C-alpha cells in the first residue's frame, strides 16, 4: 500500500506524523512517500527518511497515497489533493464539526486519534497523553525562564534564596509531568483537581493536594468524571475551589493551569481578582488556552503582563519540543495502524473494534458524531 507523510502546513506546527524509526518499519511492507522537508523541524532530514527506505516526494505525491499520516487535519487545498476513499490518520479534532464535514465531503475515511478510549489496549496509541506529557514538562521550563528568581532553595555566601512555590491546577497527564518537572527543579508544589484519585498521585510525587470538600453526593458523583475525563463541576463546588485557590495563588510564584473538559470551554480557575492578589513577578502558564483558558486574562499565543503577573498563553506547547513530540506521536500512529492494516498489508477497517469505532470520525461521506 502507498502511505504518504506530508509536511505540516499549519503555522507553528513543527511535528511530523512519521519519523525515520517508524518509516523504516512501515517500509518493510509498504511504499512510503515522505514530502521533502516534512521532518525538518523534528531533526529528521530527508536523507534520514531515504535511508529508512522512503521515497522523498512532493506534497501532491504524499497526499495522493491510499493512507495519509498527518499531525493536523489537512486544509482545503490539501484535502483537494487526496483521493476519494483514502484513509487519513491524525489529530483531527473530533469536536471540530466543520472540518469533519469537509473531510466527509471528500469521502475520506478519517481517524481522529484524540478520540481513542482510555482503555489499556489503547495506551500505546494515546496521542493526548504522549503530547500532554511533553507539554507539561515544557510549561514548567517556560515558567522558570520567565520567572525572575531561582526555582530551588539556595544557601549561598550572599544569603539564602527561598524555593519557588508552584501551584498546579488540573492534574491529568500534563499536570503530573509539570509536578515532576517542577520537583526536579527544586520547587515546593501544591496541586488541585476535581477527581479524588488524583490526591494519591499528587502526594506520591512529593506535592501537597489542595482538598476542596464535597458537600453533596451529587458533587462527589460528578467529580468521578467519565471515561477518565473530568465533567463540569456544580457552581457551588467551583466557588469553594475558587476561594481556596485564591488563597494558595496569593502565595504562589508560578501557577500552571491544565484543566480541561473534553468538548467544552475550559473551566475558569484563576479569576482576575486572584491574579490581582498574586505577587509581582509571579508567572501563570495557561495550558488550557486552546480551549479558552483557565484564566480570563491570558491571551492566545502571547506573553503579557497584567497586575504585575506574567501570563503565558502559548498553545500547543508540545510543538516546542518537536523531535521528541514527533517521536512519541509517530509511535502512537504506528501502533494504531496495526488495527487498520491486515496481515497482507491492506487497509482492513474493523468497525466492531472498540478503538477503531471510537476514532473513526467519518467514512462513506458520513460524519460520526461524538457524544
Ligand atoms: P485532561 O487533559 O482532560 O484534563 C486535565 C485535568 O484537568 C484532569 O485531571 C481533570 O480532572 C482536571 N480538571 C478538569 N476540571 C477541573 C477543575 N475545575 N479543577 C481542577 N481540575 C480540573 O486530562 P488528561 O491529562 O487527559 O487525564 C485525565 C485522566 O485520564 C488522568 O487520570 C490520566 O492518568 C488518565 N488517563 C488514563 C489512560 C488510560 O487508562 N489508558 C490514558 C491517559 C490518561
Automatic annotation (TrEMBL):
Taxonomy of the source species: Bacteria, Pseudomonadati, Pseudomonadota, Betaproteobacteria, Burkholderiales
Annotated Alanine dehydrogenase/pyridine nucleotide transhydrogenase N-terminal domain residues: 4-135
Database matches in SUPFAM superfamilies: Formate/glycerate dehydrogenase catalytic domain-like (SSF52283), NAD(P)-binding Rossmann-fold domains (SSF51735)
PANTHER family recorded: NAD(P) TRANSHYDROGENASE, PROTON-TRANSLOCATING NAD(P)(+) TRANSHYDROGENASE
Similarity field: Belongs to the AlaDH/PNT family.
EC assignment: 7.1.1.1
Cross-referenced InterPro entries: AlaDH/PNT_N, AlaDH/PNT_NAD(H)-bd, NAD(P)-bd_dom_sf
Superkingdom field: Bacteria
Entry's Gene Ontology BP terms: NADPH regeneration
Role according to the record: The transhydrogenation between NADH and NADP is coupled to respiration and ATP hydrolysis and functions as a proton pump across the membrane.
Reaction catalyzed: NAD(+) + NADPH + H(+)(in) = NADH + NADP(+) + H(+)(out)
GO cellular component, one term: plasma membrane
Domain Alanine dehydrogenase/pyridine nucleotide transhydrogenase NAD(H)-binding: 144-313
Molecular function terms from GO: NADP binding; oxidoreductase activity; proton-translocating NAD(P)+ transhydrogenase activity
This protein's UniProt keywords: NAD, NADP, Nucleotide-binding, Oxidoreductase, Translocase
Protein name, entry field: NAD(P) transhydrogenase subunit alpha part 1
